[in-house]
Structure formats: structure tokens, C-alpha cells
Amino acid sequence: MNYKFVPTSPMRKKALMFITTILMLQLFLPLTGTAAEGGWQEVGGRFGVQAGPKHEYFHLYEAFAVYELPWDWRLSSGWGLAPQLETSAGALVGGNETGFIGSLGTGLAFNKPGNGIALEAGGNLNLLDRRQFGRQDFGSILMWGAYMGVSYRFTSRLGVGYRLQHLSNNRILYTSNTPNPGVDMHMIGVSWHF
Fold first, then answer.
1. Contact criterion met (CB below 8 Å) for 171 and 140
2. Domain ranges in the chain?
3. Is the pLDDT reported for residue 22 higher than 80?
4. Alpha-carbon dihedral angle through residues 26, 27, 28, 29, given to the nearest 10 degrees
């Protein structure tokens, strides 16, 4: 493979800065945070529809699990940042074709322990089993992702959430000739909290 450095556009720079900020916060939280319980936090499912036009229309179905890392940073009120790992597996559908998509990533949740609202942001690495869906060529089976969202946990341990999720190869490992259309998804989820 022939790799060459490709200057990044302002949009890609913003996405890389967002992901880098989240990763850096997660590295420094253990230094300033307090010990937390950690462990599996929630499991659930999400459904997503494409935000914005592309050559093909996409939707996404996925099952996910969230593991809370054993530290956090909280104010005396209980509100604070909690780092977490997330994994998912599902189906990306577009161009009359269906393909597997799996992800692994990190995120931060701004929340208060127990029930209530949480703000979430993170980045992940996604693996597709194909790069072509009808007329849409993603340029790679390896995709970078970033998301921002909000969720609500009920007293019954049931949770609901919304996130705006971006997927693209960002041409990080590829030349400027590689297609990089990306796709943005509106995702709605339902989960069970432990």
C-alpha cells in the first residue's frame, strides 16, 4: 500500500480535534478524579436514519453495550464526567444492500449517578464488511466515528436516548484520491441500565 500525507480540510480538523479532546480528557480524568465503581452500565439497541443527502439513503440498526471505567470527576452536587467504553454490532442498510458494522470506542458522559438526564460525546473506530453500498463508495471498510447525544434514565432502569453520529474514513490512512463521503445519522436508542 502506498500511503502519503494528505492535508486535512477544516471540517476534518474539527472532527479530529473533537476526538482528540475526548481522548485527552479520558487520559487526565484518572489523575484528578475519584474512584468509581465501574463495570457494565447499560445494554440496548439503536435505530438510525441518515441526516442529509447522499448517493444512497442509509439507515442503521445496532445492539450496544456500555462499560463505565472505574474513575470519574464529580462536583459535590453529584454532577460530573464519567469516562466509558462502548461497543456495538449491527447492520448498515443502503443502496438495496445490507452490511455488517461493528464499533469500539470511548466516550464521556456528563451525568449524575442514578436516574435523570445525561449528555454524552465520544469517538469510535468502525469496521464494515463492505465499502460499497449501491452507488455509494465509502472508500474504506475502516471508518472513524464521532457522536454527541443526550439520554434519560427512568427509575425503572429503562433509558431512552438520541445522538447525532458521524462516520467517515477521514482520509487519515488514505490518499486524496480515496472517496470519503461519510454519513451522518440521527440515532434513537432504548437501553437497560444495571
1. no
2. 40-70+83-113+120-135+142-150+168-194
3. no
4. 40
